[in-house]
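Dear colleagues,

As part of the handover before I leave the project, I'm documenting each prediction I ran so the next person doesn't have to rerun anything. This entry is a single chain, and its sequence is reproduced below.
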Amino acid sequence: AGMVPIVTASDGGGSIRIPASFCGLIGLKPSRGRVPVGPDGYRGWQGASVHFALTKSVRDTWTLLEGLQVEQWAAPYMVPRLSPGPLTLPERPLRIAYLLDSPLTPQVRLDVANLLRQTVERLAGMGHELVPVDFPVDVIAAARDYTTMNAVETVAMMRGFEASLGRALTPDDMEPMTWGIYQAGLPWDAADYSQLLGRWDQLAADLENFFQDYDLLLTPGTNGPAPLHGSFAASAEMAQRLLNQEGLAKEARTDLIMERWQDSWAYTPWTFLQNLAGQPAIMLPLGKSSEGLPLGVQLWAGKGQERVLCQLAAAFEAAGVLETEIIE
């Protein structure tokens, strides 16, 4: 709304970056372990959820990051502190991978594709090396594990609510979608979850290996501008399926939530892998949709590499191409 210069936010799958794309703002998701958490929140969504802010300038983003960064030796996740210094790019050209398509998105909008191509051309014009790539990991498998993680962590949250209330929760206490996620997490046991986290660690290792060859990965931000309220509302039939999962195996319950999220996965398929891997990414307001609304472009780096993200963001800002604004 433009009422404050910086607004705090958290990001467990894109919830800093997606609103930044929708609102013409800068949204940085820091590396896991970069900003202070805990102790009871050390493992928010097993480290997928991190806290930071949305801003209207790269200066504010970098200043806040420098002020908040910490090395928490008691925490399970930590990255070395960023050294002070100006946001000037290295003398050498950056090697930047880029991709457009996602297995979660049947069709990328034309204006989204055009903005990505325009950004590729802009970066090439700045002297950087641009390399087309495909996703280096199995996106569908990662999305299933992300969905299961979300459901299991919802069970943990609901048990805390039940302890506070002194009674069991019922469907009347929440929306059908929330109840559905809660029910989807109940059948998963500790061994299942341990195996899931093992796959998650392997995915993180694979994505870190990818960034041994590239400085950055460029992707679209969202598959379109801010949607109208209610665009992804559940049908009455889906709401009933979410409320009544008795008899469904645990895999079928995950399938149901994946089905429910199908439209939103297709709209925001580029912003959740960084949360699983603990890597930083920044959303930059670099264009407009065909409706004249803000569209962001995402830059993604290896763990601990926020500086290069902000260096390139500062270069865009100095060139006058960031379309930072407040939509009223």
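Residues 176 and 240 are 8 Å apart (CA to CA). The chain has a mean pLDDT of 95.

All the best with the project,
I.
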